[in-house]
């Protein structure tokens, strides 16, 4: 049995059954809730490793559940919703969701998103001291203590903003970060000019991380939403 416990918060019975069957088939432990009140009770009582959350619940909005959980826990939350507008995705991600899957979805996509989240969890659980001293993802290395970045053992010359962006993405490996979140973390504010500046800095950073157009892509763009650092298998 997989040690990861996943809470499924979904009021649609067929979809809930599909997700639970998928988890059971792949040996995940699971909990289930049909509404927000039960979900919050399960979260506080059992402290699951990952939450799969529908936004349109009968008693409260999923975004409000995310905000409540974030007042005391950083457990990964993957939203699964029929709402496909960028504004809905951004609102959920800004509230603290780690990922967003749009219905209808494939079982393979769901399992892939769960695996990405598990890898991020394992990195965090490996120990903060190790994470804060040295980060490695594929051929990318960041020495946080020295403030140096290497690609294939060659030091990269990054501007202070590029380095801050890279560190922010690396500390949130596999997680989609919205434009609002990034600009708040980097500049302490959000405006159209800040978002435009972010795109410029991100473009120059990506060129340094991927000097060869056919090389490894470390940063994924989510158009209209933000950016994610991809986990590169060694």
Q: Would you kindly provide a brief summary of this structure?
A:
This protein has helices at 13-25, 36-46, 62-70, 86-95, 107-125, 128-133, 160-170, 179-187, 192-209, and strands at 5-9, 29-33, 50-53, 77-81, 99-102, 134-137, 140-143, 148-151, 154-155, 177-178, 219-222, 226-229. With 234 residues, it is α/β, with parallel strands linked by helices. It has 2 domains: 5-124, Rossmann fold (3-Layer(aba) Sandwich); 129-229, Winged helix-like DNA-binding domain superfamily/Winged helix DNA-binding domain (Arc Repressor Mutant, subunit A), CATH 1.10.10.
Structural overview:
InterPro entries: CheY-like_superfamily (IPR011006), OmpR/PhoB-type_DNA-bd (IPR001867), Sig_transdc_resp-reg_receiver (IPR001789), WalR-like (IPR039420), WH-like_DNA-bd_sf (IPR036388). Residues 132-231 form the OmpR/PhoB-type domain. This is Stage 0 sporulation protein A homolog. The chain has helices at residues 13-25, 36-46, 62-70, 86-95, 107-125, 128-133, 160-170, 179-187, 192-209; strands at residues 5-9, 29-33, 50-53, 77-81, 99-102, 134-137, 140-143, 148-151, 154-155, 177-178, 219-222, 226-229. The chain contains nine helices and twelve strands. The chain folds into two domains: 5-124, 3-Layer(aba) Sandwich (Rossmann fold), CATH 3.40.50.2300; 129-229, Arc Repressor Mutant, subunit A, CATH 1.10.10.10. By secondary structure, the protein is of the alpha/beta class. Helices cover 45% and strands 20% of the residues. It has a five-stranded parallel sheet with strand order 2-1-3-4-5, sandwiched between helices. Strands 6-7-8-9 form a four-stranded antiparallel sheet. A hairpin with a 2-residue loop joins strand 6 and strand 7.
């Amino acid at each position: 049995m997989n040690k990861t416990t996943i809470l499924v918060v979904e009021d649609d019975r067929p979809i809930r059954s599909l997700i639970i069957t998928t988890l059971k088939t792949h040996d995940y432990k699971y909990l289930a809730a049909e509404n927000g009140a039960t979900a919050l009770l399960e979260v506080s009582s059992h402290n699951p490793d990952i939450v799969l959350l529908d936004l349109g619940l009968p008693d409260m909005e999923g975004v409000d559940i995310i905000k409540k959980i974030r007042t005391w826990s950083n457990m990964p939350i993957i939203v699964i919703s029929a709402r496909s507008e960028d504004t809905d995705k951004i609102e959920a991600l800004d509230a603290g969701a780690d990922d967003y899957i749009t219905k209808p979805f494939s079982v393979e996509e769901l399992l892939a998103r769960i695996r990405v989240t598990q890898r991020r969890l394992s990195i965090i659980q490996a120990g903060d001291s190790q994470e804060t001293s040295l980060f490695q993802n594929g051929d990318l290395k960041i020495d946080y203590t020295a403030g140096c970045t290497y690609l294939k053992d060659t030091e990269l010359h990054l501007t202070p903003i590029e380095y801050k962006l890279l560190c922010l993405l690396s500390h949130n490996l596999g997680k989609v970060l919205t434009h609002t979140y990034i600009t708040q973390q980097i500049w302490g504010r959000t405006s159209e000019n800040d978002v435009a500046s972010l795109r410029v800095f991100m473009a120059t950073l990506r060129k340094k991380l991927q000097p060869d157009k056919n090389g490894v892509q470390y940063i994924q763009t989510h158009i209209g939403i933000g950016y994610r650092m991809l986990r590169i298998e060694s």
